[in-house]
Amino acid sequence: MGVLGAGAAFAQATSPAAAGGSSPLDAAGRFVDSVPGRLWLALAVLVLGGVLSYLVIAVNQRILEGAGVPDSIEGTAFERTARELGTSTVSIVARISGYFIFILAVLVALTVADVGYIAQFWRRVVLFLPRLFTAVLVLIVGVVVADKVELLVDNRLRGVKLPEVSILPLAAKWSVFYIAALVALGQLEVDTDALVVLLAAYVFALVLFSALAFRDLLASGAAGVYLLLDQPYGIGDRVRIGDTEGIVQEVDVFVTRVETDDSEYVVPNRRAFTEGIVRVRE
Amino acid sequence: MATPADLLSGLVADVDGVFLFSPTGSTYTDFAESDRSPVVVAADNDVGAERFVELPVEFDNVKDRIRFGVEGAMDQNFCEDGDTLACAAGVFSDGIDAVVRTTVSESIHSGIYDLFANSRADPSVIRDVFEVAIELGKKGQKGKPVGALFVVGDAGKVMNKSRPLSYNPFEKSHVHVGDPIVNVMLKEFSRLDGAFVISDSGKIVSAYRYLEPGAEGVDIPKGLGARHMAGGAITRDTNAVSIVLSESDGLVRAFKGGSLVLELDPEEY
């Protein structure tokens, strides 16, 4: 509508100039006068928005690259897909923030230009837009972090050549993605109560089962911290823990390795505490 | 008329196996399609080879590298006594630039692979100690050559077969070889007399140890000093490996089971 009006004004402005033969400067002055100031302001806002969004894209890209984001997300599925499409995660995120600012500028321009009859609609869009932007950003970050977590867990478990173990990286990936999706949906004010309950149940089961499964490991670890800090016995000492007697070969957080001439015992550190340590002197 | 290609065809004529040392992915894929897949010897199995021998140290000496690879392959039954092998390795550059024809025999069995793979200590710990010793040999202490003796693995027994010369600077500390600060630390402590004792998992248990092994039956070359004798002898009495940096000729030597297994010149690394 604004463009149409400007075009009409332009037609009006040029025809007398051609007919009357007055100076082009004069015609331009009349043209500027004939367009309402409000429209010029809207145009300026639009141009400013364009420049600003371009700057934001460039600066964001620099910041993300400077923070080492491209290196740390190297190899994730999202990054690979982005590369196949001839772009990269960093530029996608930078562009989204830039486009967000540009769209905002367009809306401000429309408001300034006083495009009345769609104002009601636009007002709701303006309120909704930041939330949509955050949701998209959270989703992208979630997908990338989930991919990265999968890669990290997978790398860590590479030494374990057990087919069943491959479920762990997948579980870690989907857990992270689930939480990201939950946050994104929350931003869009979708009712996520049921999903939150599901998450709580999942976390509770995880905590309960790991507490049960790692009970001995945790007790040994706590004892191991004391043994490492205080060193009641060290490598080379002859000790007796329970009915195990031998020379200490190694003390780590979870176990103590005690060796005799023909056998090597791996004693959980928990036992050093519950059964006591005897240092044997020759 | 002989063409340059004939040079190679003579070398690779009726070999029983192909060994690729640190090949690139494409080199491996080219070979992997043949009926008998090649043995890859490299630091990491980047190419996803079926038959793979891990190289803990980039041996600068190609002979040592090939020995290590062949011993490792024999250990995993990739090849056997009497096989003729074509080994493609990099001599002057990192990429493959040479093909060596060799026959698997007892003479190639120097125990290098055994030193890393079948010792009590982790291969990575032995590698780290080698690196420390090589760096110490290269730089010395304030420009002067230093000697050092590291006894790696079976630390409990080694501690019982040695006595302290003075207070142990590593008491109640949790320093492992391979930690970033350790090189500097060991360089400082190498001024002290005596041996460093390092556990199976790489923890530095003690410095300043005077080793007291029985020296009978130790087979080390004549002319090496007391440090080497002590280092060699302790590996006979215990299951440890010792890595000795000579003060006089600057070489790094490794002993296992009372005999000299490996000799490296730090200047070449």
TrEMBL record, chain A:
Signal peptide (from-to): none
Domain of life: Archaea
InterPro entries (alphabetical): LSM_dom_sf (IPR010920), MSC_TM_helix (IPR008910), MscS_archaea/bacteria_type (IPR045275), MscS_beta-dom_sf (IPR023408), MscS_channel_2nd (IPR006685)
Residue spans crossing the bilayer: 39-57, 99-119, 125-146, 167-188, 194-214
Keywords: Membrane, Transmembrane, Transmembrane helix
MF terms (GO), sorted A to Z: mechanosensitive monoatomic ion channel activity
Pfam families: MS_channel_1st_1, MS_channel_2nd
GO cellular component: membrane
Start and end residues of each Mechanosensitive ion channel MscS domain: 217-276
The keyword Membrane appears for this protein: yes
Subcellular location field: Membrane
Coiled-coil regions listed: none
Protein name: Mechanosensitive ion channel
TrEMBL record, chain B:
Name of protein: Diadenylate cyclase
Reactions catalysed: 2 ATP = 3',3'-c-di-AMP + 2 diphosphate
Protein role: Diadenylate cyclase that catalyzes the condensation of 2 ATP molecules into cyclic di-AMP (c-di-AMP). c-di-AMP is a second messenger for intracellular signal transduction involved in the control of important regulatory processes such as osmoregulation.
Species whose genome carries this gene: Candidatus Halobonum tyrrellensis G22
Membrane-crossing residue ranges in chain numbering: none
UniProt KW ATP-binding keyword: yes
Keyword Transmembrane helix: no
Protein family membership: Belongs to the adenylate cyclase family. DacZ subfamily.
SUPFAM superfamilies: YojJ-like (SSF143597)
Lineage: Archaea, Methanobacteriati, Methanobacteriota, Stenosarchaea group, Halobacteria
Single GO MF descriptor: ATP binding
Cofactor: Mn(2+)
The DAC domain, residue ranges: 109-266
Keywords for the protein's UniProt record, in alphabetical order: ATP-binding, Manganese, Nucleotide-binding, Nucleotidyltransferase, Transferase
EC number: 2.7.7.85
